[in-house]
Amino acid sequence: MDSAKFIWMDGEMVAFDDAKVHVLSNALHYGTGVFEGIRAYETPDGTAIFRLREHIERLHRSCRAYGIPLERTVEELIEVSRQIITVNDLESGYIRPLVFYELGAIGLNPAAARVRTMIAAWRWGTYLGDEGVAKGIRVRVSSWRRIHQSSFIPVAKGTGQYLNSVLAKQEALATGYDEALLLNMEGNVSEGSGENLFLIRDGVVFTPPASSGILDGITRASVMELLGSEGVEVREAGLTRGDLYNADELFFTGTAAEVTPIREVDDRSIGTGEPGPITRRAQELFSQAVTGKLSEYRAWLTFV
Ligand code: PPE
Fold this sequence. Notes:
8-stranded antiparallel sheet; binds ligand PPE; single chain; 8 helices
């Protein structure tokens, strides 16, 4: 939370230390909230937020999915996201919108609770370490399965559903790995605790489809488009644990994780054990797109 001075709460910029909620907030008890994660980057023309509208629209969709009445428009939240960067003097950083049920109802019908909306921003470096980005990370297949669409809404970013990610992440770290990869209830590959997965085999790029229970990531969509524009074949396909072991290259994508190579899965080296050429190309293209160096993708940027 380095360098956060102000947090926007329901129409006001509040000092960091004053951005508080009550312990009887419904969301604290039952996970009745939805959130987003967005990055802003330094570019030669000033700070720009990557695919801001898509993130705010997903926040609205997550609210709709869980029946949370969000009264702030997409336009207003876009404007606040720009302001939160400026008021915190950030050249680059991470933006975290959160909509949640606060005080007014304890119990499983949150309808009477006040809906609160907040947007914070802070400096956030690499999610899985600088060395992870450079050399690749070590991943384990989790003993926890990804939340299933019969119990949750995997394509929504509900706060409560992240206990599943927390269990997987804690287990991976406790057993000496950097990150977890979760299979779905059918035993196919879904995604990381907070990242989507890409697999390369014989020059073709594969990524699990929405029906595998993933959050259909905005970074995922961006990388699919960037690689596709170079003539690389990109396919959505069901993947097995064995496919992971046989891959030439693997990498994770996410707003926080950006493009992070995977060098090992379950103690098996992937490909040469070093980030491969398509992974490197994805990293390069993504980094050029977010910093405004690809004119075709300027529309993905909102300057603050
Ligand atoms: N899957 C999950 C479960 C997930 O949480 C994220 C983002 C993604 C895939 C990638 O989605 P996208 O950011 O749209 O490309 N995870 C956010 C939260 C991470 C956190 O630790 O908090 C993020 O990357 O901001």
